[in-house]
Design a protein that fits this description.
By secondary structure, the protein is mainly beta. It contains 2 helices and 12 strands. A hairpin with a 4-residue loop joins β7 and β8. The N terminus is likely disordered.
Length: about 210
């Protein structure tokens, strides 16, 4: 119950932050923002060099994602933004005859500082949270396939449906293109004594 309350609190904070940023942008009675404070929409593809940490051990759980985020200025006094969106994620791990697949929807909420190097180049350090819903997951072993979310099939090793986590990273923008690198971990366990750690390389297009 304590874990559920924590996750709900994180989700509420993410939604409240995004709504507050939107209201500030819509209701601000100041001069129009400069180019450095202009928001953006970004479509992106990522590679996840993820690992699943089980106690003192770690196994690879790599994947990729496709998504979209919207960056919204929260003040005209400095280039500070809230960035939020959604991504469809896929992860897979194969060991011997065992194959593990999982499909998720991730909602990132980031606080981004945009530092303009020139008219075409910028650096974007960021910190944020992830809210991830694990929709589908299968474990194939010995010719059989079971749901990783089923207690009947997985027993105490069943996977959780909802994860919350943190990340921090750095993006580099040139013209409308952006490359980024982030690292983060889950707050809560996805499986008993197991959490996902995530190193992500991204390529995006701003429009």
């Amino acid at each position: 119950m304590k874990t559920l309350k924590t996750l709900l609190s994180v989700a509420f904070l993410a939604v409240a932050t995004s709504m507050s940023a939107s209201n500030i942008v819509e209701n601000a009675s100041v001069a129009p923002a400069s180019d450095s404070n202009a928001g953006w929409s970004k479509a992106f593809i990522t590679y996840h060099a993820s690992s699943l940490k089980w106690g003192g051990e770690s196994s690879g759980f790599p994947g990729f994602s496709l998504g979209w985020v919207k960056g919204m200025s929260i003040t005209n006094n400095m280039p500070l933004f809230v960035e939020a969106g959604a991504a469809l994620e896929y992860r897979s791990d194969k060991e011997d005859d065992d194959l593990l697949n999982m499909m998720s929807i991730n909602i990132p909420v980031n606080l981004v500082y945009k530092y303009d190097i020139s008219e075409d180049m910028a650096i974007k350090p960021l910190i944020g949270i992830d809210l991830r819903l694990n929709m589908f997951g299968k474990l194939k072993s010995g010719g059989e396939s079971v749901s990783i979310f089923s207690e009947d099939d997985m027993g105490p090793m069943k996977f959780g449906r909802f994860q919350a986590g943190w990340h921090l990273g750095l993006g580099f923008t040139y013209s409308q293109f952006e490359v980024g690198l982030t690292y983060g971990q889950d707050f809560n366990e996805i499986v008993e004594e197991g959490r996902i750690a995530n190193t992500v390389i991204s390529l995006g297009y701003n429009f």
